[in-house]
Hints:
Layout: E1 11-17, E2 20-25, E3 50-56, E4 59-66, E5 70-73, H1 75-81, E6 87-95, E7 99-100, E8 104-108
Antiparallel strand pairs: 1-2, 2-5, 3-4, 3-6, 6-7, 6-8
Amino acid sequence: CRAAAICAGASEGGAAGGGDLAASWVRRTRIGGDSWSGIEVPLGETAEAYLVRVVQGGGILREETVAVPGWTYAAADQLADGASLPFELHIAELSDAFGPGPFGKVAVDV
């Protein structure tokens, strides 16, 4: 991985009703993120963006860019993608300078 690239922080997910799967994670930063004051860290980019991948058997079933630290995998999209449990969500923060950081991975077996 590139030294300046970072991955999204702790991730979590669960059933959101109707077969949808909701995932969320903590935004991280490269600039001014050493404070322990509890205040949200500065963005350090021109825009907040994440690359979310649904991966099964080593293949990418779906890839989306989102602007918030959360994403819902709708039941209809799961069906259209042919996704079945278990699969993984791979999440990376996007940087103007470096592209995607390292992917954080979460196994989904709800």
